[in-house]
Amino acid sequence: MKIEAVIFDLDGTLIDSMGVWAEVDKEYLGKRGLPVPYDLFRDMKHGNSFIEVAKYFKRKFNLSDTIEEIMQEWTDMVKWHYENDIYLKPGAKELLEYLYAKNIKIGLGTSNSKQLAQTVLKSNNVLKYFDVIVAGCQNIRGKPFPDIYLKVATALNVNPCNCIVIEDVYVGVKAAKNAGMTVFSIEDEHTKPEREKIKKIVNFYGKNFYVIKERLEKYFEF
């Protein structure tokens, strides 16, 4: 199998940002005098697109704001963090530099907004490595549907079977599998409850990007 592209998820995979979003939920609802219900995400799944989460909030809390207004407010609330204090996971930059040097195409498939994705990649000095960014605000079905990864592959002009996806959550792994791609998973504290079922279906599970880089190097030895 010839690997021509590596596609990354963003939040929880490339960057440590999941805690920020929990605070955003609390602050957003607090501004409207609404407590955070214990079952807030009972009907939600990891991997829902940015627009799907906005639709869910509007419906659940009967919000008067439009979907676009909800997404923009969330973006405004977290933008400072994405510019200043959200960082790449250890070893991520080294892996991106390695792939770039090998002329391997690099894509991003994220449930987040494209604006925030570009912001955090730029603040960490790695935006230049990405050939394509497909985001969850682009009105496509969220993970575990394969749409986002298939769209990245199409934009990269690479057959899905020649792509490796790096993910952290189960629904993201399923999305990549459903797209017919090879899937690597990186360990993340927020996905600990689903860790074992992730390990059962991925092609490789790594505790960090250093381990993943070592494994990827085997595909590109020539």
Protein architecture, described:
With 222 residues, the protein is α/β, with parallel strands linked by helices. It has one domain: HAD superfamily/HAD-like (Rossmann fold), CATH 3.40.50.1000. It has nine helices and six strands. Helix 3 packs parallel to helix 5. The relative contact order is 0.18.
User: Which class do the helix and strand fractions yield?
Assistant: alpha/beta
Uncertain parts: none
What do the pLDDT scores average to? Answer: 92
What is the overall shape? Answer: globular
What is the fourth-level CATH superfamily? HAD superfamily/HAD-like
Total count of domains: 1
Protein name: HAD family phosphatase
GO molecular function: phosphatase activity
InterPro entries: HAD-like_sf, HAD-SF_hydro_IA, HAD_2, HAD_sf, PGP-like_dom2
List the helices and strands and how they pair.
Elements: E1 5-8, H1 18-31, H2 50-60, H3 67-84, H4 92-101, E2 105-110, H5 114-123, E3 132-135, H6 147-156, E4 163-167, H7 170-178, E5 182-186, H8 195-201, E6 204-206, H9 209-217
Parallel strand pairs: 1-2, 1-4, 2-3, 4-5, 5-6
Helix pairs in contact: 1-3, 2-3, 3-5, 4-9, 7-8
Give a quick summary of the entry.
The chain has 222 residues and is of the alpha/beta class. It is built from nine helices and six strands, in the order βααααβαβαβαβαβα.
Key terms:
HAD_sf; single chain; 9 helices; 222 residues; Rossmann fold; six-stranded parallel β-sheet; alpha/beta
